[in-house]
Amino acid sequence: MTENGDRARPPWTVLLVVAAGILSGAVGIVYAVSLIVDRDDASVQADTGLSSGGLVAYGIGAIAVGAIFVAVAVWLAGGSSFARWTVGWFTLLHLFQGIAIVFQWYDVSAWEGVTSIVVSVVILYLLFRAPPTRAFYAKT
Fold it and tell me: At a CB cut-off of 8 Å and minimum separation 6, what does 23 contact?
């Protein structure tokens, strides 16, 4: 809060993470809807290894996860410490996933792992070490 009782405006560091969260959630929702729409397409079933019912279930779950991403991002902009720590923990998990990919524990390109590591480190820095962010969460 500011001196006159208004809510403090989030700094650019928080807004950048919020925008990434909203974008990620929205893309996840669009992807999920496309799975549900294309659930009877034989090539989609072959690519995913899921049946029509499995694609619907996966799509519904992915819509829920995307909606949660968007909600947490909005709460993050409002100064929620819970949202900040939630994003931090999930980003830490994403960092560990990137390390696993780099060491070939998953069958994908090592560059995907490097990208995950770099993005995770940047997000963690922006949320917990960047001076504008620390000042913002100290006030809320």
Answer: none
Question: Do residues 66 and 25 make contact, with C-beta atoms less than 8 angstroms apart?
Answer: yes
> CA-to-CA distance for 40 and 28, rounded, in angstroms?
20
Q: Is pLDDT of 124 > 90?
A: yes
CA distances from 47 to 18, 27, 34, 51, 134 (A): 32, 19, 14, 11, 44
Beta-strand ranges (E) seen in 1-140 are none
Reading the block at residue 62, the tokens are: 């992915």
pTM, two decimals, is 0.76
Rounded Cα–Cα distance for residues 66 and 119 (Å): 19
Q: What is the pLDDT of residue 5?
A: 53
